[in-house]
Design goal:
With about 300 residues, the protein is an alpha/beta fold. It has a single domain, classed as TIM Barrel, CATH 3.20.20.70. Helix content is about 45%, strand content about 10%. It starts with 5 loop residues before the first helix and ends in a 13-residue tail after the last helix.
C-alpha cells in the first residue's frame, strides 16, 4: 500500500475490523503460519480491516523487536488487500514514535493508548499525543479502560483538535459516554466501537465501525450481525446478537484472548497459546466453551453468505 496518509486512513477507518489474536506456540514463540492463516481467513470472510497487536493481540507481553516482526509479517501477508491498524502503544514515547513511524511506512494506521504510568494528568496526555502526532501521522487514539487512564469525552474532544489524529477506538461504552462522544467529535474523527460485546448501542448511536476479537472464532456470525445493523435490519441483527449470549458470558468469565484462541482451536483453526501473565483455558473451561460453541456452529450456515453479498 505504500506509506499511509491522513486522507486514506480516514476513509479506511469504518466498517468491521477483526482484532487478530497473536498465536504463540507452547514454548512462547510467534507462530507465523497460524498468524498468516488467520489473516487470510479474515480476508476470505469479507471483513473491512484488521487490528494487529492490540491489547487482545498481547502487545504488552512482546518486545519492541517482536512487535516490529508482527507488523512486518501482517503487512506482508495482507499485501494491501485490506486496511490494518497497527498498535504502537507504549509508555515509552520513543517506542511509540518508532513503532508508529514503522506502521505508517508499511502502509498501516498506528493506534496508541495514553501512557500508562503513575500520576499522569490530562496535560501530560495532551502533550504526549501532540508530540507523537508531530512525527507520526495519521494516528488513532485507543481509549482502553483498564490500560492506564480512561479518557473522558471532554479530553477526547481536545485531542481531536490535534492535527493528524483521525480516529478513536473507544473502549468505554457507557451509554452517556457514547452519547457525548457522538455529539462532541462525531463527524470530526472516526469513532470505532472497541468491543463486539457491546455492539448494538454504539452502532445505533452513530459509530463508524466496530472491532471484534471474537471475529477470530465466530467470523460468520459477527459479520452478519454487524451487516444487519448497518443495513437497517435491527431485528435480524438483534436476533443474531442474542444467539451468542452464552458465548459472551463465557468469554467474560474466562477472559479474552484465551477464550478466543481456545474457540478457534475447537473449530480446527490454530488459535495458539497465550503468554504469561495470562493463562490458557483449563480442560474444564474448554469443555464449557465447547458446550456453548456447539449450537452456534450447528447454525453457521445461516450466517455463511458469500463475500460481498448483503445479509
Amino acid at each position: 500500500m505504500g506509506g499511509m496518509t491522513v486522507e486514506r486512513a480516514t476513509e479506511a477507518l469504518q466498517g468491521l475490523y477483526c482484532i487478530v489474536v497473536t498465536p504463540f506456540t507452547a514454548t512462547g514463540e510467534f507462530d507465523r503460519k497460524a498468524f498468516a492463516d488467520a489473516l487470510e481467513r479474515t480476508i476470505g470472510f469479507g471483513y473491512d480491516g484488521v487490528l494487529i497487536g492490540g491489547t487482545y493481540g498481547e502487545f504488552a507481553t512482546m518486545t519492541a523487536e517482536e512487535r516490529t516482526e508482527l507488523f512486518r509479517s501482517a503487512m506482508q501477508v495482507l499485501g494491501g488487500r485490506m486496511p490494518a491498524m497497527l498498535c504502537a502503544a507504549s509508555s515509552d514515547v520513543r517506542i511509540v514514535e518508532e513503532l508508529g513511524a514503522l506502521a505508517v511506512s508499511l502502509g498501516g494506521i498506528p493506534m496508541v493508548t495514553p501512557p500508562y504510568v503513575s500520576e499522569v494528568n490530562n496535560g501530560h496526555i495532551e502533550r504526549f499525543f501532540a508530540r507523537v502526532a508531530a512525527s507520526v501521522r495519521p494516528l488513532v487514539i485507543y481509549n482502553a479502560p483498564g490500560v492506564g487512564i480512561t479518557l473522558s469525552p471532554a479530553l477526547i474532544e481536545r485531542l481531536a483538535d490535534i492535527s493528524g489524529i483521525v480516529g478513536v477506538k473507544q473502549g468505554d461504552l457507557a451509554p452517556l459516554v457514547v452519547d457525548e462522544l457522538v455529539g462532541r467529535v462525531g463527524g470530526r474523527v472516526r469513532l470505532l466501537c472497541a468491543s463486539d460485546l457491546q455492539m448494538p448501542a454504539a452502532l445505533a448511536a452513530g459509530f463508524d465501525g466496530l472491532s471484534s476479537t471474537n471475529a477470530c472464532a465466530l467470523p460468520e456470525l459477527i459479520r452478519e450481525s454487524f451487516r444487519a445493523y448497518r443495513t437497517g435490519d435491527s431485528r435480524r441483527g438483534a436476533a443474531i446478537y442474542r444467539s451468542w449470549y452464552d458465548y459472551r458470558m463465557v468469554a467474560r468469565a474466562f477472559g479474552q484472548p484465551q477464550a478466543v484462541k481456545a474457540a478457534m482451536t475447537l473449530r480446527g483453526w490454530t488459535g495458539g497459546y497465550v503468554r504469561a501473565p495470562l493463562l490458557d483455558l483449563t480442560r474444564e473451561q474448554t469443555a464449557a466453551l465447547d458446550k456453548v460453541m456447539a449450537p452456534l456452529l450447528a447454525r453457521k450456515q445461516e450466517w455463511a453468505h458469500p463475500v460481498g453479498q448483503a445479509a
